[in-house]
Amino acid sequence: MSISNIKNKLKKNSKKDTSWIDKAKWRKENEAWLDISFDIAVSVMSALKANKSNNITPGNQRELAIEMGCSAQYVNKLLKGTENLQLETITKIERILNIKLIEVPKTSVVNSFDFPNLTFDSFSESFNEFISNSLSNNDIIISSLFDNNKEPMTVGKVQLNYNTPLIEEQKVTYKCTSVEHLKLVA
């Protein structure tokens, strides 16, 4: 038999494995939660390692499984970083290991304040109304307020520069006694 005949016979009789394509598609479709699951697994492993070196329970997967009320095999599966974890499981692990695995932002963003072609008076009035509405709705104003040292400001003054068709340039200074409270000074 010639080499070409052998190659043809092998091609004809061999099975084509395309399961890797399906696995790759699945990983791509689930990439977001798989990344988070992997990060959680790394954090849990780090916490277990730290607990073990400090002689704190749980210090290994078996002890974690006992405290979680599940099998060691399930904990092993979680720590592979490919398990779609439920919030209940995540919070249970957080409580047992005394670590923070996920956090939901507790702030709300208010609508942005747009001030094209405003006069000084209408700007001040509109801005103060915007601030009042935001505070009355218990919203937190999220802004980039910095002092001269480029540090986030909590107390100080906020200076807004803007140009209008009527006035060449105006500087409006707001006194900031807290992030939630801005008061017109000038």
Could you provide a short overview of the structure?
With 186 residues, this protein is mainly alpha-helical. The radius of gyration is 30 Å and the shape is flat.
Report on this model:
With 186 residues, the chain is mainly α. It has 2 domains: 17-97, 434 Repressor (Amino-terminal Domain), CATH 1.10.260; 120-184, no CATH class. The chain is built from 7 helices and 3 strands. The chain has a 3-stranded antiparallel β-sheet, covered by helices on one side. The model is unreliable at 108-113 and 136-186 (pLDDT under 50).
Question: Which structural traits does this protein have?
Answer:
3-stranded antiparallel beta sheet; 434 Repressor (Amino-terminal Domain); single chain; mainly alpha; 186 residues; disordered C terminus; 2 domains; 7 helices
- For the terminal residues, how far apart are their CA atoms? 98 Å
Contiguous low-pLDDT stretches (5 residues minimum) are 108-113, 136-186
CATH topology name of the largest domain, in short, is 434 Repressor (Amino-terminal Domain)
Computed over alpha carbons, the radius of gyration is 30 Å
Looking at how many chains there are and whether they match, the oligomeric state comes to single chain
Q: Which class of the largest domain in CATH terms?
A: Mainly Alpha
Number of helices: 7
User: DSSP strand (E) fraction?
Assistant: 5-15%
**Total separate domains:** 2
> Please, what is the average pLDDT?
73
Q: Per CATH, which architecture of the largest domain?
A: Orthogonal Bundle
Task: Give helix % range.
Answer: 40-55%
The H-and-E topology, N to C, reads as HHHHHHHEEE
Q: Give the total of beta strands.
A: 3
**Lateral arrangement of strands in the main beta sheet:** 1-2-3
Shape: flat
Which structural category fits the helices and strands? mainly alpha
Q: What composes the largest sheet? A: 3 strands, antiparallel
